[in-house]
Amino acid sequence: MAWTTPASWPVGFFVTSAFLHAQIRDNLNELRSGGLAISTQGVGEIIYAADSSHLTRSANFKFDGVGVITINAAANASAFRQQIGGANKAYFCLSGYPKNDSSIDATMFAESGGGIQFMVNGSATAVGGFLQSGVFYTVNAMVLTAAQKFYFDSGSDSYIWENSSNNLQVFTGGVHRLNIGAGVTVGSATDPGANNIRVEGTSTLLGDVAAAGKVKSSGQPGFLVGNAGGQSGQVNGNTIVFDSEIYDELGNFASNTFTAPVAGRYLLTCAVTLSAGTASPQGRGIRLVTSNRNYQFDFKDGVTSTEAIVVTGAVVADMDAGDTAHVILVLTGGGTCTVSAFGSAGETWFSGRLLV
């Protein structure tokens, strides 16, 4: 016999015995023979729809009162199983097939200490771990061991750990590179290194602290320039020429003028050798001219025409970003004088450096 789709009975419908047999008796028998009555039923077995009109029991899974478990693993290769049971465990099988509770290979559950424990291949220390207050967990190549080491690769020579003195230490290549405790120590006696602390931007070294305490900062503006060929016939108020660059860290010096790239306190120093005056006596000196204010440097009065003098000066000047600084000649008594070249004796130069 076959299943008959149940009919809707309108008011006044004439019911025959054949209609009742098909709608009630035969359909009940159909359910009894395969759709509902399932032989060899066991406790916890799962019933599911085999097709649009039949139910059957599962030969592979059953319900154990807590979660769904497998009873035929071979037929369920590459399946994924997750169970939240009485032990608050979640089971994962990302390859192979689900296993029973006693041999499950990947679990996550709330352990008694209040944290979350991860177990892989039955072990919490192999490639599993813990997630708990004060405790980290790692997976795959990053391993948490009994010594609380956090590894960066599959080897054993690059890791972070807390030692017995509660210091946080960093090892790379098996060498102790960083220690953070009461203070911060970079490098070690076994590996002081040439550049222990390096601060880098995009392919640019910004700062460097060497093992002996030397501090370098290539991002700080600084310059040293000299006068290449000297200047004769100079009168009062002329700008001293500095056209020979010894160094200019950030390229802030041009056309005898320094331009501050950032606001700060700049140490500015200079020395100028003046000679061959055309008037006697003369007063000779130099003045540093900045955007914010001027600074009168060394000035000597009563200088004879044949006398050569060196006038110098230094100041920590306040400068805003974009402010400029240059040096001018101060000459009294009329006439002119000559500005000597930098030369081998370093007679005429101008230097500056950002301090803070």
Walk me through what this model shows.
This protein has 356 residues and is mainly β. Helices cover 5% and strands 42% of the residues. Among the domains are: 149-188, no CATH class; 222-354, Jelly Rolls. The strands form six sheets. Strands 17, 18, 19, 22, 25, 27 and 28 form a seven-stranded antiparallel sheet that branches. Strands 4-5-6-7-8 form a five-stranded antiparallel sheet, with no helix packed on it. It has a five-stranded antiparallel sheet with strand order 9-10-11-12-13, with no helix packed on it. Strand 9 and strand 10 (159-162) form a beta hairpin. The longest helix is centred in the N-terminal third of the chain and has 19 residues, at 17-35. It is rod-shaped and about 145 Å long.
Entry keywords:
single chain, 356 residues, mainly beta, Jelly Rolls, seven-stranded antiparallel sheet, five-stranded antiparallel sheet, 28 strands
Helix-strand layout with pairing:
Layout: H1 17-35, E1 45-51, E2 54-63, E3 68-70, E4 89-91, E5 106-110, E6 116-120, E7 129-132, E8 135-137, E9 149-151, E10 159-162, E11 168-172, E12 175-180, E13 184-186, E14 197-200, E15 205-209, E16 215-216, E17 222-226, E18 231-234, E19 244-248, E20 253-254, E21 257-259, E22 264-275, E23 282-290, E24 294-303, E25 309-319, E26 324-332, E27 337-339, E28 349-354
Antiparallel strand pairs: 1-2, 2-3, 4-5, 5-6, 6-7, 7-8, 9-10, 10-11, 11-12, 12-13, 14-15, 15-16, 17-19, 17-28, 18-27, 20-21, 21-26, 22-25, 22-27, 22-28, 23-24, 23-26
